[in-house]
Structures are given as structure tokens and as C-alpha cells.
Amino acid sequence: MTANPPKAQAASSLRTGLQIINAVLERETSGRTGFNVARLAQEIGIDPSKASRMTQELCDRGFLERREDSTLRVAAGFHELARALNHGLLRGSRPILRRLAIEHGAGARLSVRDGVLVRLLRAEAAAAAEPWPVRAGLVTPCWCTGAGRALLLDHSGDEIAALLQGYELIGVGGPNAAHSADELAAANDRDRPGGMVAAHGEFEHGITEYAVPVRDGQGQIFAALAVLGRQTDLRPREETIRADLTASAAALGRLIDVATP
């Protein structure tokens, strides 16, 4: 008896689709120019016509999208799916974020990096503490946010320069935002020894964001945990916040290991 052809074909298509998404995601997070369909087909070793057909289907389903220059990037549908598959982490993070928000009278956020952007996964706030309304999926630049800098804390200066190549940093963020890759790398060099990013007025005037990386069992940065609020309220509590964020990030790291097969 032979295998059922439709099932075999579906399994093959699924594997190829995952290969395509993974290749696009790795290229995007590396900071290099994205793949077009022809280059993508060459990268993963499939026929260009098949690559064209499958990338179009992935675009139609909201997992990929085409930029104006025809290169591909991972789209919101993929991130929503990834969030759903990691629902244990999101559910487990809620009490941690809620406690941080109440304890420090500030907004508390869990974010991941999406190329040069920071994508918010979950946010909690103490009453009247959040400086601006937020929602899951909100994106902000990595170079002028505490979470963004925490997500890049292991990057070298050269890696940061490669990631930000072609992006205009001037005019984005608050008065203390980095205006170049060198300034961003220098800010991280300053904060790295203490294990916590202290972003004073980098996204908005008068707002401080403290952020730490969340690491998986292999020590890789997976996400960023942050509290943010008025600088005058948070800065006197900096050491307390540092200790609390560090312990909370370790707890989230353990959740990641449990949630990841």
C-alpha cells in the first residue's frame, strides 16, 4: 500500500513553508538586506516557481509581507501565531508584570525584537501609572527604548552598526535617544556591567525605562522585561528596580524553558 499522496504533499508543503519563514526571519534579524523570491529560492534550494507560489500563499495568509523593494519580511500573522504557541509564557508573565507594576507604580512590559523594531507582547500598569496607552503588538524602534537596548545588550558595536545600516536615527525618540549606531553601542557598553539598561528620556522627555534581557536556558536573549514611568518617580528606586527586574527576568527565563519543547 502506498502513502496517501495528498497527506505526503501537505507535509512537504508545511516543511517548505517553515523553511521559508525561518530563512526570512533569520535574514531579517541578522540586519542584512532581506531576500527577494529568487534569492530565497537559491538560499533554501527549491525551484523558483515553487518559492514564488509558496511565498505568495504565506503573504496571503499574513505570515510574510513584501516590502516596496520586493524583499520579504515576517508579518504580523507570524508573530501572532508565535505568541499563541507560547501562550504558557504569556499567561505566566501576567502575574510577574502585574506585581512589578503595582510594586513600582509604573508600567511593566514584556517585549521581543522584530528586526530593528521592538514588539510588545504584554503590558500591565498600576492605576494612572502608564505614561501612554499601549496594546499588545505595539512596535517601537530598538535604538531609543530601554527594551530595545536590552534586546541588543549582547550585540557588539559592529553587529549594531550592521543592524541599523540604512536607518535614519535622527529625529526619532526623546531628547536623549541615540543618533547613531556608535552612540547606541556606547550606551549599551555603559549599562552592560550592571546588567540593566537605564534609558532616561530616550523615548520621551521625562520618562525613564529600566529594562533587562530575559534569557533562555542557553543564555540567549529571548525577550526584554521593563518598567517605565516618570523619571522623578523611578530614578530614586533604581537599585531596588534593578534587583526586582533581574529576579523577575530569571523567573521568566524558567518559564521559557518550560514552554519550549
UniProtKB/TrEMBL annotation:
Superkingdom, taxonomy of origin: Bacteria
Chain ranges of the IclR-ED domain: 77-261
Entry keywords, A to Z: DNA-binding, Transcription, Transcription regulation
Database matches in InterPro entries: GAF-like_dom_sf (IPR029016), HTH_MetabolicPath_Reg (IPR050707), Tscrpt_reg_IclR_C (IPR014757), Tscrpt_reg_IclR_N (IPR005471), WH-like_DNA-bd_sf (IPR036388), WH_DNA-bd_sf (IPR036390)
Protein name: IclR family transcriptional regulator C-terminal domain-containing protein
